[in-house]
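step=predict obj=Proteasome (prosome, macropain) assembly chaperone 3 n=123
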Amino acid sequence: MSSPEPIIRSKQTEKDVNGVSTQVVCTEFTNYIFVVLTQFGKIGTLISVTPDSRSNDISTPTFSTKVLLGKDEPLTHVCAKNLATFVSQEAGNRPVLLGLALKDSSIDSVKQMKEIIKSCKVW
């Protein structure tokens, strides 16, 4: 008899990004995906990344970002959209809750972090 599928699926990994230890935890809930990306071992700033239902073109939705807890800075929104948009799209346009605590938010680092998130795919 096989074991039942867990109610909440979660996956985590740790990799170096430009010499900085980076941890990712992806958890799938029925109504959203929760992704924690940290280089400090903390959840950090919590951002909601939501597909915008007002978009006229369903094939390429726009996304809204809202900082729920932490520093509300322009770079936070840029990083959140770059890191979480593909997650939402691959998960059937579900909203993403993103915990972000980064030492290095350079373009190269963000590209590497996207690949780490992909390796933790639970959706």
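step=describe
The radius of gyration is 14 Å.
step=end
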